[in-house]
Amino acid sequence: MKETQRLLKVVKRQSAFIEEMEQQYPGITKVKRDAEGAIIIDEEIDNGS
């Protein structure tokens, strides 16, 4: 039971972190895939300038 509670806390912290990152950087958690399921990498880099 203790391990279950510990893991639940970990998952909740991870979930909160991911939500915060998504708010700060919209779309960061999205993965684009082609028709065959391969990941599409956007090679354009935004360096903030």
Largest sheet: none
Helix content: 40-55%
Mean of the pLDDT scores? Answer: 91
Distance between the termini: 51 Å
Helices, by number, come to 1
Secondary-structure element order, as H and E?
H
Low-confidence spans: none
Please give the number of β-strands.
Answer: 0
Structural class: mainly alpha
The shape, in one word, is elongated
Radius of gyration: 16 Å
Provide an overview of this structure.
This protein has one helix and no strands. The protein has 49 residues and is mainly α. It has a domain at 1-25. The radius of gyration is 16 Å and the shape is elongated. The termini are far apart.
Please give the structural blueprint.
Elements: H1 2-24
List keywords for this structure.
elongated; mainly alpha; 49 residues; 0% strand; 1 helix
Short description:
With 49 residues, the chain is mostly helical. Helices cover 47% and strands 0% of the residues. The chain contains one helix and no strands.
